[in-house]
Amino acid sequence: MTAITLVQGDITRQSADAIVNAANSSLLGGGGVDGAIHRRGGPAILAECRELRASRYGKGLPTGQAVATTAGDLDARWVVHTVGPVWSATEDRSGLLASCHREALRVADELGARTVAFPAISTGVYRWPVEDAARIAVDTVRATPTAVEEVRFVLFDDRAYQAFARQLG
């Protein structure tokens, strides 16, 4: 059974086999978690992302999908990039947010990762309500068969940490 743990802090400071990046579809860096991972991980991550764009993902990584690169200078072996959905009040996109977690775990399994650190996907500039994102993330990880031994949700602030803690209840 996969252990689910919570940490409040900076995901780029985590030691794990794989760190999940809440990427944008371009895979070329951005703000929030994405920008922080690219900055701290260094140029090797961007170089592999550019290769992915030049080969498999010419139009970008589709929302809900995941792909791995090196972790560069991070204390991890891989970064698993996944593109979360933008929250919408008029369209239910929760299946895409769940897919981000399932696909990241699938990629982690293919790599042989045993510890995976996730951010609160889509809760930043994509405006997903953190309580709902926490419910989807925790429920999806619990329901997804995986060889990953520990999923660590790394939450940037106390509000997100508390929302995830309530889901683990």
Description:
With 169 residues, the protein is α/β, with parallel strands linked by helices. A hairpin with a 7-residue loop joins strand 3 (66-70) and strand 4 (78-83). The mean pLDDT is 97. 44% of the residues are buried. Helix 3 crosses helix 4 and helix 4 crosses helix 5 (158-168). It contains five helices and six strands, in the order ββααββαβαβα. The longest helix is centred in the middle third of the chain and has 18 residues, at 94-111. It comes from Streptomyces bungoensis.
- Can you tell me the CATH class? Alpha Beta
Category from helices, strands and their pairing? alpha/beta
Give the full name of the CATH homologous superfamily: Leucine Aminopeptidase, subunit E, domain 1
What fraction, in percent, of the residue positions are helical?
25-40%
- Sheet of most strands: 6 strands, mixed
Mean pLDDT: 97
Total number of β-strand segments? Answer: 6
Order of secondary-structure elements: EEHHEEHEHEH
Shape: globular
Oligomeric description of these chains: single chain
Q: How many helices in DSSP terms?
A: 5
What radius of gyration results from the CA coordinates? 14 Å
User: How many domains, as an integer?
Assistant: 1
Low-pLDDT ranges: none
Distance between the first and last residues' Cα: 17 Å
Second CATH tier, the architecture: 3-Layer(aba) Sandwich
Q: Strand sequence of the main sheet, in spatial order? A: 1-6-5-2-4-3
| Named CATH topology | Leucine Aminopeptidase, subunit E, domain 1
